[in-house]
Amino acid sequence: MINYIKHHEWKVIEDGFDPALNRISESLFSIGNGRMGQRANFEETYSGDSLRGSYIAGVYYPDKTRVGWWKNGYPEYFAKIINSVNWIGIRVWVDEEELDLNKVSILRFYRELDMQKGLLSRQATVEFADGRQLTLRAERFVSIVTPEAGALRYTVKPLNFSGTITVVPYLDGDVENEDANYQEKFWKEIKQEADGNSASVLTETLKTGFRVGAAMSFRLLRNGHPLDFSPQPATRPLYAEASVTVPVKKGEELTLEKLAVVVTSLNFPKQELEAEMLKVLKQIESEGYEMLRREHSNRWAEKWETSDIRIEGDVAAQQGIRFNIFQLNQTYTGEDERLNIGPKGFTGEKYGGVTYWDTEAYCLPFFLGTAPSEVSRNLLLYRYKHLPKAIENAGKLGFTDGAALYPMVTINGEECHNEWEITFEEIHRNGAIAYAIWNYINYTGDYEYLLPFGFEVLLGISRFWSQRVNWSDEKGAFVILGVTGPNEYENNVDNNYHTNNLAVWTLRFTLDVIDYLKKEDPWLYQEVREKLKFNEITETQRWKEIISNIHLPFDKKRGIFLQQENFLNKELIPAEKIDPAQRPINQHWSWDRILRSCYIKQADTLQSLFWFEDDHSEESLRRHFDFYEPLTVHESSLSPCVHAILAAKIGYREKAYELYLRTARLDLDDYNNDTADGLHVTSMGGTWMAFVMGFGGMRVKKQRLIFDPFLPSHWKSWSFRINFRGAHLEVKKTPGTFTVRNHSEVEVAVTVWGKEAIIRDHEKTTFKI
Ligand code: BGC
User: Which residue from 454, 552, 585, 608 lies 20 to 30 Å from 23 (Cα-Cα)?
Assistant: First the structure.
């Protein structure tokens, strides 16, 4: 844990520069617009430690698998979203010396991410070895109005000398990944051009053939007035630049405004890519930096209007939640069902930028609550489109007859993960995809999604579970052997409660869906049944047998379900007894020691209790929480949020607050000592849930919004916005009261502290404890 980010309600602030923290800051100050994004790398050359990263959604390379020992069923490659063309670069020369923050003395340094406006900026005063001092200011954004556009403004000012400044704005497609299995390059040259004040680079990914076009143009200003200049263009493979040298007097400001466009063959046919790129460049040139910046910030204001959470009385918590909301909105905008949410978004290479169960389990609720329902629908359709691949994937492992196993990790539907204990065993992910369908329908009421999309996916997953269980004579029950639950700190276990529970829940849900479809749309249902060769009688008969006879390991003495068959054989020592110097244990202990220990990486049995809380009494929830949470080390970012929600539910308010803070500030305070790799973007959806479901106690049941809110003891108030079935609500908690204000035309049924009410259009109702 580290604490150098200044607390502020709307801004992330770093005051002073420590090169040792640079990678962390590069992650924290990342910007994106759903289409592309990048780490907070400096515009100018920096020879110190840095992870350069500019990423484009959906543009990936299939990096050939590298494992020590090949196992049948491993994928051929790991598809990763790769570092792509660097459009922010500017080299700066002061007289004959290049500006490099690693080689000058930094007298002052200030970096700021303004989350309200979506702007990243930086100011520094630096000194060269011979005493020449310079201030620089940089500001940039990737537009959320024109998602192909990025813009930056870079100013230098000699403080105690006059001389010549050379600025060299460039586009560099000759970039590499740190994470490359064979240290290969992933890009090939197509074309580069530089002419006057503009330049462009066309590149293409090897193997996958995604073509990317980047173009830039720029202007220069002296003390805010446009300057005439004649640039020197230059190109080399995958690279284009223009260089300008200008005499600048002491105290004068030289400003470079650089506008850039990045387009890909995902969105335009290859033959038209260049023309489209130039068209967008022309369009943004005619608008200019100021106008682009203004519309971008106005659009952010609109986004905040529907997704903000306000806290009065706790700046650290306020900054934390806004940071999470900001990053989620930067990563996914939901217009394109081919895109998804990588665990690190656009902020790092780890996890390859591709899709995990995180999306369905942790991110979907945020988009359900804050965006139009099409956004969540697109997240679901992403998986629907991958269904044939999931069936193929299950086929590779020996499953038949339409059984589907969704990949642990994917971008195009194919499994990319290659550790047997996860790839083959962490099958609870399949259940998470089924659960997301339920969650979406429960929240939106969009039952039409079930036919054919939802039903086809549910059938594939149910068929998988039906084949994955086996009958145990010994137990007289169905069992699921050799799995890894969400807790990756034990593998190849039998009868993981969460997996078994989720399997039978999916079967039950699919049966309910079938009943519903038979009633609502018998003709279409019949058609889909034939298409999928679904033998309703025999297949559902087996499902029912499994539902009635599944083995769920239970300890009578403690009254709790067991994480897995042998969990109680472990030496149960609370995590608080671990020497703090040895935490996180995954960075200090051997894997062998971790696997044999009782320590739980993230919610596992408690994940099931969170999803299926109504199957338990409050007493039962408490018993499970009291047993499992003390053994949990929360070393997955996905962990504290689920625990915070459960803690709130069972009345452990202090604990809920502590865990909330941990999830909300996980990256800002680098809790798990890994923010340098990138932000934990998918867990940010969990943070939102921890707030709305934890402090707000919000649930959706029987078409109603239920609230059971409370206020952490030292807060004055909190409020959040929520979309629900066409309505838009603002809810506010103050000591003793809870107010629901309806900002829309649509009336909403709510239950607050057990009391039912209808909130009519544009009305507000205040509830008192
Ligand atoms: C967690 C997984 C998660 C993955 C990506 C791992 O550390 O254990 O549950 O899917 O990170 O976020």
Answer: 585
The side-by-side arrangement of strands in the sheet containing 755-759 is 699-701, 704-707, 748-752, 755-759
Sheet holding 90-94: strands in order across? Answer: 97-98, 90-94, 163-172, 239-248, 232-236
Exposure string over 251-285, b if 16+ CB within 10 A, otherwise e: eebbbbbbbbbbbbbbebeeeebbebbbebbeebb
The total of other beta-carbon atoms located within 10 Å of residue 567's CB is 26
pLDDT score of 751 more than 90 = yes
Residues paired with residue 482 on neighbouring β-strands, in sequence order: none
Q: Is 488 a catalytic residue?
A: yes
Q: Is 318 in the pocket of ligand 1 (CB under 6 A)?
A: no
Q: What is the pLDDT of residues 3-46, one digit of tens each?
A: 999 999 999 999 999 999 999 999 999 999 999 999 999 999 99
Gap between the Cα atoms of 340 and 334, Å rounded: 8
Query: Closest ligand 1 atom, CA of 487?
Result: 8
The bridge status of strand 554-555 relative to strand 560-561 is antiparallel
DSSP string across 677-712: G---HHHHHHHHHIIIIIIS--EEETTEEEE-----
Amino acid making up residue 574:
P
- Which residue, chain included where needed, has tokens 């990486």? 601
Instruction: Say if CB 149 and CB 48 are below 8 A apart.
Output: no
Q: In this structure, are residues 393 and 405 in contact, taking their beta carbons and an 8 Å threshold?
A: yes
**Closest CA to ligand 1's atom 11:** 636
Q: Evaluate the CA torsion angle 415, 416, 418, 422 in order and state its sign.
A: negative
Band (pLDDT 50/70/90 cuts) for residue 769 is confident
Whether the model clears a pTM of 0.70, i.e. scores above it, the answer is yes
Structure confidence by residue, pLDDT tens digits, 428-456? 999 999 999 999 999 999 999 999 999 99
Token representation of residue 442:
């429960």
> Whole-angstrom Cα distance, residue 429 to residue 499?
9
To test the pocket of ligand 1, the residue of 358, 591, 600, 641 to mutate (highest count of ligand atoms within 8 Å of its CB) is: 358
Tokens, residue 218: 């720029």
Tell me, using a 6 A CB cutoff, whether residue 453 lines ligand 1. Answer: no
